[in-house]
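Exercise 7.
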Amino acid sequence: MKSIIERKEIQEKIGEIGTADILVGIPSYNNARTIGHVVRAVQAGFAKYFPDKKCVLVNSDGGSTDGTMEVVQDAAIDFQSILLHHRVLPAFKITTPYHGIPGKGSAFRTIFEIADSLNVNACAVVDSDLRSITPEWIELLIKPIIEGGYDYAAPLYHRHKYDGTITNSIIYPLTRALYGKRIRQPIGGDFGFSGKLARFYLTKDVWETDVARYGIDIWMTTTAIANNFKVCQSFLGAKIHDPKDPGADLSAMLYQVVSSAFDLMETYYNVWKDIKGSESVITCGFQYAVGLEPVNVNVDRMIDKFRLGIKELIDIWRGFLPDGIIDFLNRAGELSKEEFYIPDDIWAEIVYSFALAYHKGIVNKGHLLKSLTPLYIGRTASFVLETWQSDAEEVEEKIENLCIAFEDKKSLLIEKWQEV
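Solution. The predicted structure, written as tokens, is:
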């Protein structure tokens, strides 16, 4: 695939800048409504915390038609309004459409390539739909890299209990059990990383896979951990963006994220097979309580989708789910809303059974992953009903219990993985 660096206007811009210390990338697609705030927060972060560093902001766009790139170019910060009176080196700004498969991962690849060409020391990427980003996010994602010696800073946020349900029910417990690091938001979307790690990412041949789409976040986190880069997490406060109803159609995102996680299990089997339990990682930043916007959920619709899945997909699941799980699902499909519940150990065994079926090629991978959607929605409905009255601390305790269930059942996963 042709590199973005070969384009004449990018070459000219890189030639103008030469080298840089810090680069922050913002992927976008039709985010004109929200991206101006994100750009101003990044510019203020550069000025406030890195006034003597050469900083570059890169907007990697997927072909927006709503004027997103023009908003990025026009966004500017009034330094007097944020009470800055010290000398500030001007930041550079690059806006460019990316090449390749439409998706966030392709946008990130362009950001990595420009970071490599500019030989930067530290990078960060932030989502373009953020409403809660502040200049402090840039400090918290970049300083662990340039002053703390870390290669990767994952985000840690407070999120509404029904925002990030793919993270809470699958990706966090699975990643933690496999690789032994308690990185709470492995697909958070806002990360800091070293120039060395950006160059390492570019050596990997993954840009024609689901990594080019929503799979990029779990791929970045797992690649950093599995290759022994030094990782930490930074507390950023609240994540307020445009969350989606977990009962709405998240199947494309679920498919791409889970397929990337399962592909990484193949790549790094020799890493995760010997890891037992998990350990915390250093968390940077001062933690505090925040107010959060509610996320609306429709539990009745979610349970209906689960029951429809039982009716239409049970014969596919019989090919790889244990008999006891099949019996449980048949019973669960008959439960009333008030009785509906999918326990942690059952859910962990379901996810591991899907990973094993993916590994052994028992079912076409596309059909397999699509058939996970109604089970994920059913598990999410169970979690919503279980935590309806719970505060944030109680919700975290329940997610911790789910993680322990994944860790406890990992030995069964390893045993069956080796049975080919």
